[in-house]
Write a structure and sequence with these properties.
Elements lengths: L3 H22 L5 H15 L4 E8 L4 E8 L10 E2 L4 H9 L3 E3 L21 E9 L2 E10 L7 H40 L2 E3 L1 E4 L2 E9 L4 H5 L11 H25 L3 H13 L2 H12 L4 H17 L4 H4 L1 H14 L16 E4 L6 H7 L4 E5 L6 H8 L4 E4 L12 E5 L4 E4 L3 H22 L5 E2 L5 E2 L2 E4 L5 H6 L4 E5 L2
Parallel strand pairs: 9-10, 10-11, 11-12, 17-18
Antiparallel strand pairs: 1-2, 1-6, 2-3, 4-5, 5-6, 7-14, 8-12, 9-13, 13-14, 15-16
Helix pairs in contact: 1-2, 1-4, 6-7, 6-11, 7-11, 8-9, 9-11
Length: 485
């Protein structure tokens, strides 16, 4: 049995050593060598038979074994897991530690023959977190059952906390030269991209890449520690946020009467939830910086929603994130004036909140391209109702194109053309004119629909929001076939 006092001393020394390694990394881009030193040190200090680090590859959506002490070194770079796959994948997906006393009794454990991990029974894994996101996993294994305890979990979480920042910085350094090269060739590489249609339409306009500001406050709360704000500032920010949401709801109601409740219901429920506000106030009163307090509780709510298997519930995590960012921004007594969002442009973004749509439509956005996401989101429903062409793609290089690059968005078929040729433009202009003529002809449709042999049929319309009823009436629809809620 390990002695608690000895364990604590060992763990403190371990944290000091990891901190020193992080300092050594500052002048180096040898991330793999750095990570190998870490796994060797952690395995030795925590008396573990195995210590491994898996890094998340965003492009391929998989966790890759990058360094190990105790497993077959030839398996480095070869063992890959999807989020949710195995204990390591589950740790990454949940962004929570997992401690297993006997892997043979765990349904999540996945055995890799090439790793030569036979005989290792206990398993402890902790996410390497960048705010609410996991960028990798550090894991320990031991041949004895139930070897790891709560002290080990705490120690490994502390190591992961120190390590995450260094790992992220190293990843940025290693990818810097590749990023520069990609930026130079992006325009030539990207000519045509096929995506998923979320809201049909056609648009040709300059591009604008939007990278949401303020996200770093939520994803890196420690950077805001010691902000100087207090409990009164938090309460003022909450009140200011509530007033802003009420104004947004009123403005949105003028355009889409039932759309405002679709967007802001979750915001108001969370903002008025005494548990949410009280939890933040409690830890502020215990001495936590208000900025960090908002981030910490928001992360708990986000994790709760994202772990739900139902997509509709999981999507509420976006509402929590949006609300938390608004509260953080409102700590400032005077918010800076933002540049107009997407004015007469085709907006390219990795993520947008439903409330962003109001700013976009106000600025006459011509189309939206989302890099990632799902077509069942509120963004898609609102875009269809507001007649904003929207296509969802899985091409991260789109986020690197220069602003004002000409883009043709064919959201009828999900096709995207970067710097389209004159021939392509002429083709789509003909197609667009034909579509407009078809709409004009549809207005003259007979009020009663029949087949060519005279058989009476009923023509019903599919409706996203109530504002589309008038269009259905113009087209002589006789009822509603499907109302998408």
């Amino acid at each position: 049995m390990k002695k608690a006092a000895t364990e604590n001393e060992t763990h403190i020394n371990l944290l000091c050593d990891v901190s020193n390694l992080a300092n050594l990394l500052t002048g180096s881009v040898d991330m793999k060598g750095f990570l190998q030193q870490v796994v060797e040190m952690v395995a030795e200090r925590l008396k573990a038979d195995v210590c491994s680090i898996y890094l998340y590859d965003e492009k391929n959506n998989e966790l890759v074994l990058t360094a190990t002490q105790g497993l077959n070194p030839d398996s480095v770079g070869k063992i890959k897991l999807k989020p949710g796959e195995g204990i390591v994948g589950a740790t990454h997906k949940r962004v929570l530690p997992i401690c297993v006393g006997d892997v043979e009794e765990s349904q999540e454990f996945k055995y890799f023959e090439e790793a030569k991990e036979d005989g290792f029974t206990s398993f402890l894994s902790v996410p390497l977190q960048r705010g609410v996101e996991s960028i990798g996993v550090i894991s320990l294994q031991h041949e004895k059952k139930n070897y790891f305890n709560e002290i080990d979990v705490t120690a490994l979480r502390a190591v992961a906390s120190q390590l995450a920042s260094s790992v992220e910085n190293a990843r940025l350094l290693l990818s810097f030269h590749d990023l520069v090269a990609r930026e130079k060739t992006t325009s030539e590489q990207l000519k045509f991209i096929k995506g998923e249609v979320a809201s049909d339409g056609f648009s040709y306009a300059p591009a604008m890449v939007i990278k949401k500001k303020g996200r770093s406050l939520l994803l890196n709360p420690l950077s805001a520690a010691g902000s100087g704000y207090g409990l009164a500032d938090f309460r003022r920010s909450v009140n200011k946020t509530g007033a802003q949401l009420q104004k947004l709801q009123k403005d949105f109601s003028a355009r889409l009467p039932e759309g405002a409740s679709l967007i802001f219901t979750a915001h108001f429920m969370i903002l008025k939830d005494p548990g949410f506000i009280q939890k933040i106030e409690d830890i502020i009163q215990m001495g936590t910086d208000p900025i960090e307090a908002v981030c910490r509780i928001a992360v708990q709510y986000i994790s709760l929603f994202t772990s739900n298997p139902h997509p509709y519930i999981a999507e509420k995590a976006n509402d929590v994130e949006d609300l938390a960012l608004r509260i953080l921004k409102n700590f400032q007594k005077e918010n800076p004036i933002e540049n107009e969002l997407g004015e007469k442009k085709i907006v390219i973004a990795e993520k947008l909140f439903p409330s962003d749509i109001l700013n976009l439509v106000t600025n006459d956005v011509k189309g939206i391209i989302l890099v990632g996401g799902g077509i069942t989101s509120h963004i898609s429903i609102l875009s269809r109702s507001l007649k904003i062409p929207l296509v969802i793609v899985e091409e991260p290089l789109l986020l690197l194109i220069q602003d004002d690059t000409p883009v043709l968005l064919d959201a009828d078929l999900g096709n995207i053309y970067i710097r389209p040729s004159k021939e392509i433009l002429e083709k789509f202009e003909r197609k667009n004119r034909l579509k407009e003529d078809t709409i004009s002809n549809a207005i003259m449709m007979d009020p009663v629909t029949r087949t060519i042999d005279g058989t009476r049929v009923e023509l019903f319309a599919n409706i996203n929001l109530l504002t589309e009823v008038s269009i259905a009436n113009q087209l002589k629809a006789e009822g509603i076939g499907l109302y998408r809620s």
